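Usage

Read records sequentially. Each one opens with the input sequence:
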Amino acid sequence: MALIYPRPMPLVGASSISFEPSVVDYMSPETGGRIGAVAAGFPLWRMRIALANMDVEHSDIWRAFIASMRGSRRQFLATDLTRPRPRFHMDGVPFGQSSTSSWSQTIDSNGDAALTLNNLSPGAVLLTGDYIGFKWDTSGAAAGTYGRRALVRTVSASVVGVNQSVTVIVEPPVLSLVPSTALAHVDQPACLMRIITGSTQLGEQVVDGYTASGGTIEAVQDLLP
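and closes with the structure output:
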């Protein structure tokens, strides 16, 4: 049996998760007293998972996954465990068509990124805090994977109209490296990440027991054009 990379992260054993974009800003006071700020590089998603006390089966899943990452050398597919799909549809209400290759982004007069998705099912709902993923590069399509990923999160809510389109404000904006042919999707949206080895620690296992103490998993997005 061959492992396929990038691997999806385990979905078991987590007690809490932090999944937020990280930006580096340089701030400087201006002559008039205002504060100027400029971003250094692209925003990167960072993830921190606190693992609960787990049974042996779940502990082994995480131990095997971390070992297969070989420190920071391999990528995996990271997703916010609290929002694997739009919140309005979490209880099973169907979203309808959950992906589309017809989308566009415009920057409005406030500098916010307005993302429009087309060819979706009318009545589907995107609420604040929902994720939209982008995937492209089908070099791994035979194995059911995509080699490139990007991820944004909504900061406004909207409903897909009768014209099958919906527009929401997203952060961070869709990066210019995402091609217009990328598939936008709301089912298991993910980005590529690498483990931060210095901050990742699996807990000790209980000798002759059925549980293992938790641990901490930290990772940062790896952007590939």
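Summary fields computed downstream for this record:
- The two ends are 30 Å apart (CA to CA).
- The chain has two domains: 1-79+191-225, 84-189.
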